[in-house]
Amino acid sequence: xxxxxIFVIVPVFNESKVLEKIVQNxxxxxxxxxxxxxxxxDNVKEIMKNYPVIFLCHRLNIGQGAALxxxxxxxxxxDADIVVHFxxxxxxxxxxxxxxxxxxxxxxxxxxxxxxxxKDENVRSVPFIKKIILQTGRYINWIFYGILLSDxxxxxxxxxxxxxxxxxxxxxxxxxASEILQLVKKNKLRFQEVPVTIHYTKYSQxxxxxxxxxxxxxxxxxxxxxxx
Length: 228
Fold this sequence. Notes:
The protein is an alpha/beta fold. The protein has one domain (6-226): Spore Coat Polysaccharide Biosynthesis Protein SpsA, Chain A. 44% of the residues lie in helices and 16% in strands. The longest helix is centred in the middle third of the chain and has 18 residues, at 128-145.
């Protein structure tokens, strides 16, 4: 059988300090890469000219949700069988993509969510306040959408072609994670969680893993639900 076409979508905003290493790690694992530059003002574009990646660019900074959808649109055109969402700040591990996509390859589900709360050693690495906020967001998602994941706002996820066609992100910023759950529920997509490691570094916390950012997730959840 022909090997499945797997594309890793990396949304980027001013990540020139770490992006090159991330792309090198992904290429070493033989994945096709779609880098979506969400209006960066650094030299990301110049750096990516040195690598065999598909590079797409937003003229303005719109948000991670929008960047992911741009990448997903491209993946559909390229006949992707599986797409992986992978953050550009160094918090995700390229070596863990293999276990993330395994349930998809075995046709056990349509979308796989990475979780930092399924293994004790991963849970211990999560800052205490952040853990409380993430768990609060988890239950808000359950109340609003009827899906109770252990880690609803982990950006490390993968989906098959069916989910790729059904999931169209319209929430440009943080609320896109909750919108994905809403679409999973609406379209009756099969889902599963697998344990993943989140690497908390000074850089990643400055870029998007701060406590303040986690609080914003909860506000986005509530505003998205009632904005209509």
